């Protein structure tokens, strides 16, 4: 649970440390006290010995493809009866310990697990000398694999499957990939006696799909039926009998899901298609701990992006769900994933944020509650791009991307390229950045995605890319009163009024919050540029 204003006013906060080896727990604080860290908030006794007047940075890189983690260096002075050397000899192996560093408000009893992880780099000496070590969150490896091991064509699951289908893994269908003559989904010939093709390894929303025989291009819309394989798994199949599609056991068959209702569903029957829901669904197949509350909150915005794709793993290449997220979702979404004691959760970066979305306001005046800590700087210039191209609507059967969308700052490109549109950020970027001859500079960035078929989603992806890449962002650091910013987290939107920097309720995103027990908190901010306002204010 995070801190609110009651926790941050009127009483100092306390650092608490739990070190656990096996079933034994050593509890330490800066002074003797009882704190509610036990089961159901039961009080636990803490002995003096923790020497920590430091700080813990809660920081997330907005553009990282690995979860953020935290590490803190700690020093402990144990009483003589808890001499480190004696404890180790008695089996309390500090190098094997896990630990939790808590921040506690005695005023309200609110607890926050600031760092929860493993003990590293332990050093100790003789009696009376300190024990030093680091406590580090572990970026857990996703040991799970997808699709499920038994979701494949075998002699047990489908005794009459063709030789061509044997060993293949079932496809998973998300959204409505296909259409316009595209057939991106594989169909597996699982029963040669009844001419049945498996089109999805699960129940689907669609009632019919278009099927094509790749050898002679015969096609038809065929009704979908539910069936059970030899392991009892519910799957979706079509029957070629009388459909007009040529039956040939050595042919390849493909499916278009673009107009029949789509694939996976929520429990209420609605289509699983929002990117936030897909992210949460795939994380649910992983071995990673999931912070469901933060994930659900992030999904509300991320669901404005639509995912349409077929997940089809090769027979010898199941994958970690987290790897799929890194490869397919993180590149198209303004999101990074944060690792904390509560589990993994997405952090949404609202590059389109406005002042009314702010959860805090910093007012810098002659008697500041917020003071400038670092000069204003700019993000690297070599990350700038102002002609952005996204290839999407991937069709594996055709080995091609069926669609392309471009945002540009060049009016000629916008007029001559039917896939291109002018974008305010790209126009401003091309105007500001000049080539060696003093001419407007076009800096291209070209990417592709296998999980987008929607034109609207492609446009939304390019829109946040433009806000991210077209201009260098301004970065600044402040020290602010604890009650103003102590409850902030990376990704939060704040406003700043700082007359000396010509800022009035300027919008920023929080990149880092440094937690201490002091009254001041350090925060690092990234400016959100409002080009419409800037252009109006320009002379």
Residue ranges: pLDDT <50 for 5 or more in a row? 4-10
Write down the overall mean pLDDT: 88
State the oligomer.
single chain
Cα gyration radius (Å): 28 Å
In this structure, how is the largest beta sheet organized? 9 strands, mixed
Total number of β-strand segments? 30
Structural class by secondary-structure content: alpha+beta
How do the strands line up in the largest sheet?
3-4-2-1-8-9-10-7-5
Count of separate DSSP helical elements: 10
The portion of residues assigned to helices is 10-25%
> What's the end-to-end separation, in Å?
48 Å
Tell me what portion of residues adopts beta-strand conformation: 35-45%
Shape: flat
Structure description:
The protein is α+β, with helices and mostly antiparallel strands. Helices cover 15% and strands 35% of the residues. The protein is built from ten helices and 30 strands. The chain has helices spanning 5-8, 84-89, 275-284, 292-302, 321-329, 411-416, 424-432, 455-469, 482-485, 531-537, and strands at 14-21, 24-29, 33-35, 44-48, 50-51, 56-59, 71-76, 98-104, 111-123, 131-136, 172-174, 185-191, 196-200, 208-213, 219-228, 234-239, 253-256, 309-311, 335-340, 343-348, 360-363, 370-378, 387-395, 400-408, 420-422, 444-448, 474-481, 493-498, 503-515, 520-527. It has a nine-stranded mixed β-sheet with strand order 3-4-2-1-8-9-10-7-5, with no helix packed on it. Strands 6, 21, 22, 27, 28, 29 and 30 form a seven-stranded mixed β-sheet that branches. It has a six-stranded antiparallel beta barrel with strand order 12-13-16-15-14-17. Helix 3 (275-284) runs antiparallel to helix 4 (292-302) and helix 3 packs antiparallel against helix 5 (321-329). The longest helix has 15 residues, at 455-469. It is flat, with a radius of gyration of 28 Å. It starts with a helix and ends with a helix.
């Amino acid at each position: 649970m995070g801190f609110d204003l009651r926790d941050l006013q009127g009483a100092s906060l306390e650092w608490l440390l739990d070190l656990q080896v096996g079933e034994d727990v050593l509890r330490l604080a800066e002074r003797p006290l009882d704190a509610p860290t036990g089961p159901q908030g039961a009080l636990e006794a803490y002995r003096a010995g923790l020497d920590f007047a430091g700080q813990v940075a809660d920081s997330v890189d907005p553009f990282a493809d690995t979860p953020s983690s935290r590490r803190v260096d700690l020093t402990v002075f144990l009483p003589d009866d808890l001499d480190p050397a004696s404890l180790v000899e008695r089996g309390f192996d500090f190098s094997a310990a896990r630990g939790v560093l808590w921040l506690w408000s005695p005023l309200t009893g609110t607890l926050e697990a600031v760092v929860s992880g493993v003990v590293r780099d332990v050093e100790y000496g003789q009696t009376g000398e300190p024990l030093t070590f680091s406590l580090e969150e572990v970026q857990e490896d996703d040991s799970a694999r997808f699709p499920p091991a038994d979701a494949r064509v075998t002699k047990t699951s489908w005794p009459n499957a063709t030789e061509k289908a044997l060993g293949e893994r079932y496809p998973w269908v998300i959204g409505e990939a296909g259409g316009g003559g595209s057939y991106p989904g594989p169909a597996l010939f699982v029963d040669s006696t009844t001419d049945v093709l498996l089109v999805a390894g699960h129940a689907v929303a669609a009632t019919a799909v278009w099927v094509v025989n790749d050898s002679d291009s015969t096609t038809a819309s065929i009704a979908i039926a539910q069936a059970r394989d030899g392991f009892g798994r519910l799957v979706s199949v079509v029957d070629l009998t009388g459909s007009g599609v040529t039956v040939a056991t050595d042919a390849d068959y493909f499916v278009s899901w673009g107009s029949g209702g789509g694939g996976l569903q929520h429990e209420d029957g609605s289509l699983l298609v929002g990117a936030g829901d897909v992210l949460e669904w795939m994380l649910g197949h992983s071995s990673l701990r999931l912070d469901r509350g933060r994930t659900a909150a992030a999904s509300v915005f991320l669901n404005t992006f639509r995912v349409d794709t077929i997940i089809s793993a090769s027979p010898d290449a199941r994958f970690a769900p987290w790897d799929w997220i890194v490869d397919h979702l993180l590149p198209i979404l303004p999101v990074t994933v944060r690792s904390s004691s509560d589990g993994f959760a997405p952090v949404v970066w609202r590059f389109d944020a406005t002042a009314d979305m702010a959860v805090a306001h910093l007012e810098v005046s002659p008697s500041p509650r917020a003071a400038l800590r670092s000069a204003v700087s700019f993000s690297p210039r070599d990350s700038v791009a102002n002609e952005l191209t996204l290839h999407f609507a991937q069709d594996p059967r055709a080995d091609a991307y069926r669609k392309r969308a471009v945002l540009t700052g060049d009016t000629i490109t916008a007029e001559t390229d039917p896939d291109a549109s002018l974008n305010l950020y790209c126009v401003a970027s091309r105007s500001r950045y000049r080539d060696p001859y003093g001419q407007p500079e076009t800096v291209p960035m070209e990417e592709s995605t296998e999980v987008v078929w929607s034109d609207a989603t492609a446009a939304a992806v390019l829109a946040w890319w433009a806000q991210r890449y077209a201009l260098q962002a301004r970065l600044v650091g402040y020290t602010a009163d604890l009650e103003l910013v102590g409850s902030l987290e990376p990704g939060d939107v704040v406003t700043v009024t700082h007359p000396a920097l010509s800022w009035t309720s300027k919008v920023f995103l929080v990149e880092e919050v440094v937690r201490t027990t002091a009254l001041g908190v350090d925060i690092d901010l990234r400016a959100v540029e409002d080009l419409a306002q800037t252009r109006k204010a320009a002379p």
